[in-house]
Specification:
single chain, 5-stranded mixed beta barrel, 70 residues, 7% helix, mainly beta, OB fold (Dihydrolipoamide Acetyltransferase, E2P)
Amino acid sequence: MAKDAIKMTGKVVKLHSMAEFDVELENGIIIKGLISGKMRKFNIRILPGDRVDLEISPYDLTKGRITYRH
């Protein structure tokens, strides 16, 4: 993603499909998180309750890219 991406951590609360999740951020806001390309390539599984790192675009604060699972 671009250099100006906002990096945050959150907790997965709901699974929509194998690539879309509802993620609750540290400040309580729930956004839609999509799996990044490397995580899809290496079949990194994410389940509800997992802690994840997100990159959020400053232009659309309702969606983010999941880049890492803790």
